[in-house]
Specification:
With 169 residues, this protein is mostly helical. The protein has ten helices and no strands. The chain starts with a helix and ends with a helix.
Length: 169
Amino acid sequence: MLEHLFILVLPFAMAFAAAMDLQTLTIPNSVSVVLMGAFLVAALIAGLSWQGVLLHLATGSIMLLVGIFMFSMGWLGGGDAKLLAAGALWIGLDHLVPFLVYVGLFGGALSLTILAYRKSPTGTVIASYLPGWAERLHTKGSGIPYGIAVAAGALVVFPSTNLFALLAV
């Protein structure tokens, strides 16, 4: 029974992170911290081998380094980089490539959509009805909530992972 509850941690945390990123263009550090701690508990409950746990930890660590590099180059926000690493921790090395492909596809679609939205005119009448986050997204030069793409990639790939299968038993 407890195993089944841990299946929900990643989807709920990713959905929360995506919603926060959309509304505020920030992802709270607590989301990544919760995902890291919950992974360790989920791995123990699922009976993941020590080698498996270490491989997941290595995958998350490598993605954190990649994310830090991308952040330093201005290609990714700091919260997005940490969320990418936390997602990779849960996904593991076996499914990392599909995860990154989905993140890239969703991120590309998201970016193109937001760039098109920014080129669209917003009249004063329409703008007065937009919520604050929609106005921010329309502002040229503001960030793109890439946490949405990271969350979508994780949600698509997670059900095919070994950790998910172990927790679903």
